[in-house]
Specification:
Layout (H helix, E strand, L loop, with lengths): L3 E5 L5 E4 L1 H7 L12 H10 L8 H14 L3 E7 L3 E9 L5 E7 L1 H15 L9 H16 L4 E9 L1 H8 L1 H18 L5 E6 L2 E6 L4 H15 L3 E2 L5 E2 L2 E9 L6 H17 L6 E2 L2 H20 L5 H20 L2 E10 L5 E12 L3 E3 L1 H10 L3 H16 L7 E6 L1 H4 L4 H12 L6 E6 L8 H13 L2 E7 L6 H7 L3 E4 L10 H14 L3 E4 L5 H9 L4 E2 L10 H9 L2 H9 L1
Parallel strand pairs: 11-12, 14-16, 16-17, 17-18, 18-19, 19-20, 20-21
Antiparallel strand pairs: 1-2, 1-5, 3-4, 4-5, 6-8, 6-11, 7-8, 9-10, 13-14, 13-21, 14-15
Helix pairs in contact: 2-3, 6-7, 7-8, 9-10, 11-12, 13-15, 15-16
The structure holds ligand C2E and magnesium ion (MG) (2 copies).
Length: 567
């Protein structure tokens, strides 16, 4: 018989016990004589260590109360060593009773294992979609009672590349690494799950939108640190994160997932490279991006595979370069035509790649924009430029180039404020150059961002004027204080003088100052002076130079720069 069995008479005296019972409760129990009382059986069982931490009187009073009820029943008993015994109790007509005992430890373990496997991802051991959904439902139930929760949808950037380069086994190790880091970024009551492939999600119960953004930022920075993949080497990846909150955005799991997913889409394909919180504007942005992607798939010839993989490799290397400090800045001064003093310095990003050599920003900025790296790159440029400028002896402005995507990032103005605080640079010494080459979308996110930047007290300049879409309305909307005429207008042209003169007059008539970019020759300089151009920048006065050089250069005026050129 697979079960243990014990028979007691009406006076609770042991009448029969089988071998299986002794196997379950220890062979020592076989020494018990027939006729011994139930209390003594329990006392002996306790003494040989079957019930660690429990007293015989406790166990006896519980069992005795049950026996005296004279009812049939089954209950579970825990023994030492985490064993679980199912006991079926049956009263007999003569006043005695019989119990059968079954050791169900293994069965329970197997059931628990099956349940675990059904609810967890085999590779990363994180909850799978099934368990995730139930955790999300629980959090949303609480949100309906006034305890907000947040949902983060994550998609890894550059994971496919690791899989392609290092193989699937390396990809698996990377996913496990990611899972470990996610768990370190969240609290005990949060759930991080793998929903499939390189998609993850996090439910944060009892969490506000602001806290959710902070967690997402922590995840972004943890995941973008180098991953060591053992024998497979190392890998760098990024992550795109979309966030939606309950009950603010939705109060049911389905809609909330949909909105976090839309925010994720916008975060991934707008290339901002930072977590995005859902809002209606973002929804419009996501639709726009999707339409654009569809149109470009239809309209233009698809990129050749080779070109696609060249860009993917470039994006991956750029990510590494950013983390390993292979990006640096150089500075080009901008002089006042009348006073001949430097009034500002433009920070220009440089990538020195150990294999490719120096990669031009004209090449890597578009890659950054298309791979989610423009956010972190701009942030790095801003912080470095502000820190360096705060140490210059000549307190001129420092200008940093922005990508239009930076302005679609809802927290961008807050990032700028934080960087100003961290570097100690006065806000009015920071200039942000907005390129005119790409038309800024008219959306609330962009408008709010421009407004917040103005409130911060930083200056906005329009770059590359004449090369794109700008009109007078646009100049007003951006509330720029300075306009930089694109350097193509200095190229020899029979109507060069008239065109330049018209452009300078137009900008000045709007009450703005004007910079001529790309001033290479004395003839250019002379012409610009004659046309009353306010400011000049170009190789004639100095090529973009290393940070160590700029401080000394600033102390000298334009005359000195020109003298050096002639000498
Ligand atoms: P930009 O903002 O119009 O910067 C001026 C560019 O003109 C720089 O090229 C500079 O080296 C070049 N330049 C300056 N004076 C002369 C000159 O007299 N003659 C000629 N032929 N060129 C001159 P660079 O550094 O290659 O940068 C190219 C563009 O890349 C920049 O154009 C800017 O749009 C972008 N860029 C550079 N750094 C950053 C950055 O940190 N973030 C973003 N978003 N874009 C950047
Ligand atoms: Mg510029
Ligand atoms: Mg320019």
């Amino acid at each position: 018989m697979p079960q243990g069995i014990c028979l007691y008479d009406a006076q609770d005296r042991l009448q029969l016990v089988n071998e299986q019972f002794c196997k379950i409760y220890n062979q020592e129990m076989a020494k018990l004589p027939i006729g011994i009382s139930f209390y003594d059986v329990l006392a002996y069982s306790c003494a040989i260590g079957n019930y660690p931490g429990r007293s015989v009187n406790d166990i006896y009073s519980l069992r005795k109360a049950f026996i005296d009820k004279r009812q049939k029943g089954t209950f579970l008993q825990e023994l030492g060593g985490e064993r679980l015994i199912a006991i079926s109790h049956q009263p007999l007509e003569d006043g005695g009773w019989v119990c059968t005992y079954e050791d169900i430890t293994e069965r329970r373990r197997a059931e628990a294992q099956i349940e675990y496997l059904a609810q967890h991802d085999g590779l990363t051991k994180l909850p799978n979609r099934l368990l995730f959904n139930s955790r999300l439902d629980e959090a949303i139930d609480q949100a309906r009672c006034g305890v907000d929760c947040a949902l983060l949808c994550l998609d890894l950037d550059g994971f496919k590349d690791v899989n392609d380069r290092l193989g699937h086994a390396a990809g698996d190790v990377l996913l496990q690494e990611v899972a470990g880091r996610l768990l370190k970024c969240i609290g005990q009551d949060a759930t991080a799950a793998r929903l499939g492939g390189d998609e993850f999600a996090i439910v944060l119960p009892n969490t506000s939108a602001v806290e959710a953004i902070k967690t997402a930022q922590r995840v972004t920075s943890r995941l973008s640190e180098t991953h060591s993949l053992g024998t497979f080497g190392e890998a760098k990846i990024g992550v795109s994160i979309g966030i939606a909150c309950a009950p603010t955005h939705a109060d049911a799991a389905g809609p909330l997932l949909l909105l976090a997913d839309k925010a994720l889409y916008a975060a991934k394909y707008s290339g901002v490279g930072v977590p995005l919180l859902y809002d209606e504007e973002l929804e419009r942005l996501a639709v726009e991006l999707r339409d654009k992607a569809a149109a470009s798939r239809k309209g233009s010839a698809p990129l050749a595979n080779e070109e696609q993989s060249r860009i993917a490799v470039l994006a991956n290397d750029l990510r590494t370069a950013l983390h390993e400090g292979h990006i640096h800045l150089c500075y080009q001064p901008i002089y006042d035509t009348v006073t001949r003093r430097p009034i500002a310095v433009e920070a220009l990003a440089r990538w020195s790649d150990p294999i490719r050599g120096s990669v031009s920003p004209m090449e890597f900025i578009p890659v950054a924009e298309n791979s989610g790296l423009i956010g972190p790159l701009t942030e790095w440029v801003l912080l470095s430029a502000c820190r360096q400028a705060s140490r210059w002896r000549e307190p001129v402005q420092v200008s940093v180039n922005l990508s239009p995507l930076n302005l679609s990032q809802p927290a961008f103005a807050a990032t700028v404020a934080r960087i100003l605080g961290e570097s100690g640079l006065a806000p009015n010494r920071l200039v942000l150059e907005l390129t005119e080459g790409v038309h800024l979308q008219k959306s609330n996110v962009v408008e709010n961002c421009l407004r917040d930047l103005k409130v911060l007290g930083v200056a906005l300049w329009l770059d590359d004027f004449g090369s794109g879409y700008a009109n007078i309305g646009y100049l007003r909307r951006l509330s720029c204080s300075v306009v930089k005429i694109d350097r193509s207008f200095l190229a020899p042209h029979e109507k060069q003088r008239e065109i330049l003169s018209g452009m300078i007059a137009l900008v000045q008539a709007c009450g703005l100052r004007v910079v001529a970019e790309g001033v290479e020759t004395s003839a250019h300089h002379l012409l610009l002076q004659e046309l009353g151009c306010d400011l000049v920048q170009g190789f004639l006065f100095g090529r973009p130079m290393a940070p160590e050089q700029i401080d000394a250069t600033l102390l000298l005026g334009a005359e000195s720069a020109l003298r050096d050129r002639v000498a």
